[in-house]
């Protein structure tokens, strides 16, 4: 191969490498998100992402990974497949007490009294995963595993496993259900 061809081949390979690296990531509010991840050997794809905002303050970037991306919330909620919800804390304004309180209120406002009573033990266990201090840059992952429940990770460390498909469904509805925590965030997570 001539030096001329070799030079251009190297340029093309470098271009393809750079292009492929960028095509597999997306940035939301300064947070770099992967287009695909693996959970329990299941490949999941980024369905969408957005920022949770409260009182004009960006709290966290939420992103959802699913087996088959869709903008239909009911099909995601009711699918019997692995899902992974990620929260990247983007403010130093939030702390564990505020986040726990907000999640408890959001679970209450998006659930019936009967659902809250039925799932009280699972909700308490879930909220106890926020007992450690929370700082900007922390990342929470909620892996929803059908037939098993929810695995809660903080900064890639497993904190708790919460059994039950009913709680799993209730949890994902926080972000994409009929009464989501933030309608703009829901739209972003659904890829709209």
TrEMBL record:
Signal peptide: none annotated. Pfam families: Chalcone_3. InterPro entries: Chalcone_isomerase, Chalcone_isomerase_3-sand, Chalcone_isomerase_sf. Coiled coil: none annotated. Residues 27-191 form the Chalcone isomerase domain. It comes from the Bacteria. This is Chalcone isomerase domain-containing protein.
């Amino acid at each position: 191969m001539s030096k001329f061809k070799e030079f251009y081949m190297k340029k093309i390979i470098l271009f393809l490498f750079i292009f492929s690296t960028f095509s597999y990531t997306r940035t939301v509010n300064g947070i770099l998100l992967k287009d695909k991840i693996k959970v329990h050997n299941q490949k999941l794809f980024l369905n969408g992402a957005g920022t949770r905002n409260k009182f004009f303050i960006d709290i966290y970037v939420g992103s959802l990974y699913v087996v088959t991306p869709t903008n239909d919330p009911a099909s995601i909620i009711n699918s019997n497949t692995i899902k992974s919800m990620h929260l990247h804390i983007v403010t130093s304004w939030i702390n564990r007490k505020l986040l726990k309180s907000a999640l408890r209120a959001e679970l209450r406002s998006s659930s019936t009294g009967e659902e809250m009573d039925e799932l009280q033990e699972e909700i308490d266990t879930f909220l106890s995963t926020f007992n450690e201090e929370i700082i900007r840059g922390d990342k929470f992952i909620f892996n929803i595993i059908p037939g098993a429940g929810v695995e809660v990770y903080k900064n890639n460390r497993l904190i708790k496993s919460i059994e039950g498909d009913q709680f799993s469904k209730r949890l994902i509805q926080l972000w994409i259900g009929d009464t989501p925590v933030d309608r703009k965030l829901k739209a972003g997570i659904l890829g709209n």
